[in-house]
Amino acid sequence: MTAKPLIECVPNFSEGRDMGVIKQITDAIESVEGVKLLDVDPGKATNRTVVTFVGEPGPVIDAAFLAIQKAAELIDMRGHKGEHPRMGSTDVCPLIPIANISMEETARWAHQLGQRVGAELGIPVFMYEAAATRPERKNLATIRAGEYEGLAEKLKQPDWQPDYGTPKFNPGAGATVIGARDFLVAYNVNLNTTSERRANSVAFDVREQGRVKRKGDPITGEIEHDEQGEPIRIPGMLKAVKAIGWYIAEYGIAQVSMNLTDIQITTLHAAFEACCESSANRGMRVTGSEIVGMVPKKVLLDAGRHFLHKQQRSLGVSEEELIKIAVRSLGLDELSPFDPRKKVIEYQLEDAANQRLVQMNLREFANETASESVAPGGGSISAYVGALAASLGAMVANLSSHKRGWDDKWEFFSEWAERGQTLKDDLLHLVDEDTRAFNAILEAFRMPKETDAEKAARKAAIQAATRYAIDVPFKVMELCSQIFPLLKAMVEEGNPNSVTDAAVGALCARAALRGAMLNVQVNSSGLHDKDYIAHILERCASLQKAADSMESEIIELSQQKLSGS
Fold this sequence. Notes:
single chain; about 575 residues; Four Helix Bundle (Hemerythrin (Met), subunit A); four-stranded antiparallel beta sheet; 18 helices
């Protein structure tokens, strides 16, 4: 099955106070089938709302057009005031490739949207970033210079003819910037000051562009120029970061407002730490921060690991705990409650039906298994027992990393704990995946078989579903085989008080692996590819033999530890 291309659209509308207007715009977005609205983030002080939605390119472009159209109807720029730079009712509308689509393809979709907005709505459109038509238009700040108030005169200049639409000034809607770009994190750091000038000083310290170099006084001194007459700049601390300082009356504080344009180069926690350092050097303190819009899960997981590492504590904790640590450490809930389920892209995209079992509590899961339904069955149970085995290994590693007197070993045990957490998460995913694989076989058998074409399609679907129903439990076997080295290391090196926990993990890992093998065997009877079956069953036998040996070794080692020999 070909994976569907997904793009994200993050339009910024010049209205952050009238929720009725914002609702009409988001209603227009949600009217398009195939689009999922992920987040609506209004700001009163900025008088701006950042909306995030995702889908396949065609529906996303349709939804973006309707949103821009509705914003032009409802938002009159002639009366707009706000802290954030802006030039139109829909100020900027970037498209971001999320999955199975290149930046080049995304840029072509951006041009399709730009052409449509310019032609049908009479709004001047400028293309930026990967969709820019000329180098000097790649940077949003360059295009937006002069903002709405300077737009009428700007459009008269030959160098500032729009990419789409006419250069005629649209007083109500202004102009819109459309483009394609990598994922950008809009991130504000809160300071314990009300001074916009001091916040700007921090922004100049951290942003890549830095500040202009001056003679004498760094604020009022004469600007120094190079041989070409261009101002000499002192680079800032962080690459791929744009930043300004502003005062937010709504909160009664000044902020450093940043765009992290490449989170592979500068992470969220690196930006936070840089602001902390600069603020402290200037006699201020960072009190918290806020994420505008949404972020990939990795951003918060990396932050959680960063702060744990600073504390010399094990990084091998659950995903939920890592995010909780990131939220606390970054102060993301200082200004308003921070709900990861609403702010993390992956959580918003999760299909609840596809995570049905692992979202249950223990009693619900046991009841569902015990019901008259044939799924979940042995395959899902095997995956879950394997997850418990990995969890026991991670537990022993975490306890060992924090054991009094073992401070010099914390990184060793942290690495093992991280491996355990990864194995646990992968196996939990397969709990539901095994049930989905079984259901896919049932659906294939229900396909029509009246015509020759229908019979052929049904046969192909049955074989594909059967192959997947073999691959899933085989993957469980492979993952379970990787748990044994963790458990052995914990028996040999871990906290002596937890030896039996690691031993129980070994018993669970072997049981899970053997159970998954039974699923492979029973499903193999329905697959016509005999060469593939022979290969898989040979690998199963090898994994089983190794698991039996490792389990026996770990149990023997644990008995030796318990007896003191």
